[in-house]
Each structure stands twice: as structure tokens, then as C-alpha cells.
Structure to design on (222 residues):
């Protein structure tokens, strides 16, 4: 049976989009929120959209508890550390997939990196070395994730200090029909997370004839 994943902050646009995409790929999802009742409502709405029953809405702690191994963190950066502090005991034995980008509170076209260098590194420092933190899915448009009529239009860069958890996260992400690349240790998140506000800037620019763009890794012509 396919393992259950948890998405913490799952009632936001990014979390909902990922829940839809993973459920469509046959992956059961525990959608976490501080308000378990609200999570259950959102889960029912998402299941109705895709005609399925693989998404369950729960309070954050309960969602982490039912996850077999993978827990995706999709909260705003303002809630990043507090959420992890609250969930740290429950995250023992899990892999945390941190998709949070520390966008500036004053301007989403800028980042405001924490002292550790990135949200991924901040999470690893907070949780300690025994809970692997993998940074991924930073550059995917929430609009694209929720538009189920189109394929996800980007590749995914995956980073973290432990190789085996990186490989597991890459395998999970590949179920979304995208290519995941091993970007190395957690310090790579400083570059990966910082690219998100650049995409935001491009996507809202009147000089650019498209929106909701993503990153692609292109092989050279041969």
C-alpha cells in the first residue's frame, strides 16, 4: 500500500495544490492545519474536485502522526519556526520536506533569509541532526498546482544534508510527473529559495508575456 504523507499548512494554496496532485497520483494525504475541522472541510472539497477519497483533513499533530515517513511543511515563513517547535517531538523518525521560502514581509519580490542562511537550514538547526530536513518544491506556482488541466511546468531541485532522505524525496516528487534533481547539501537552499522571488517578479511583470513560470534544467543540444 502507498505510504501516507502529511502536508502541514495544507489548507493554503500551495498545500491544497500539492494534496490534489499527490492524491491524483495515488498517494494518500493527511492535510494538516491548526484547525482540524477546517482541514476536514478543505479535504472534503479537494476530494470532491478529483472524485476521490485519498485526502484526509486533520489537526497538525494528528496529520504528522499518521504520516508513514514524509511530512511536507507548507506554512508561511512567519509561522515556520513556531510550527516546527510545536511538532518537533512528533517528527522523530520522519523526513521533513521544507518547501517554505522566506519572502520579505514588505515585498514578496525579495527574500529575507534567516541567520542560518535559508528556511531549510533553519529547520535543520531547529530540529537537530536526527530529523533529516530536505528542501524541495520551492519554485512551483500554487496556481499551476491547482490548475489540474495542465501538467506541472517545471523541474524540482532537491537539497539536504543526508543523501538517502534526498533520494526518497526525489522518488516521491517524481510521482507528480516531474523531474527532480539532486542539488546537494542544505546550503544549496540559499540559492534555490532565493530564486522564488525572481520568478514572482517575472510572473507579475507587464514586460513578460506569461505568468506562473517555473524553472527547467535543459540538457545541451547534441
Amino acid at each position: 500500500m502507498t505510504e501516507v504523507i502529511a502536508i502541514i499548512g495544507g489548507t493554503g494554496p500551495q498545500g491544497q495544490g500539492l494534496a490534489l496532485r499527490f492524491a491524483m497520483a495515488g498517494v494518500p494525504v493527511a492535510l494538516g492545519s491548526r484547525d482540524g475541522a477546517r482541514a476536514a472541510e478543505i479535504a472534503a472539497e479537494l476530494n470532491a474536485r478529483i472524485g476521490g477519497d485519498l485526502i484526509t483533513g486533520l489537526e497538525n499533530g494528528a496529520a504528522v502522526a499518521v504520516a508513514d515517513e514524509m511530512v511536507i511543511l507548507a506554512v508561511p515563513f512567519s509561522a515556520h519556526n513556531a510550527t516546527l517547535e510545536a511538532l518537533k517531538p512528533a517528527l522523530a523518525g520522519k523526513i521533513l520536506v521544507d518547501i517554505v521560502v522566506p519572502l520579505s514581509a514588505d515585498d514578496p519580490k525579495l527574500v529575507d533569509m534567516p541567520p542560518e542562511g535559508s528556511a531549510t537550514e533553519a529547520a535543520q538547526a531547529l530540529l537537530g541532526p536526527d530529523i533529516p530536513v530536505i528542501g524541495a518544491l520551492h519554485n512551483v506556482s500554487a496556481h499551476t498546482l491547482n490548475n489540474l488541466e495542465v501538467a506541472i511546468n517545471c523541474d524540482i531541485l532537491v537539497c539536504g544534508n543526508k543523501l538517502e532522505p534526498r533520494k526518497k524525496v526525489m522518488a516521491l516528487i517524481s510521482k507528480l510527473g516531474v523531474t527532480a534533481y539532486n542539488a546537494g547539501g542544505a546550503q544549496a537552499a540559499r540559492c534555490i529559495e532565493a530564486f522564488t522571488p525572481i520568478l514572482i517578479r517575472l510572473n507579475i511583470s507587464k514586460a513578460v508575456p506569461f505568468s506562473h513560470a517555473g524553472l527547467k534544467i535543459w540538457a545541451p543540444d547534441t
Remarks:
- The chain has a mean pLDDT of 95.
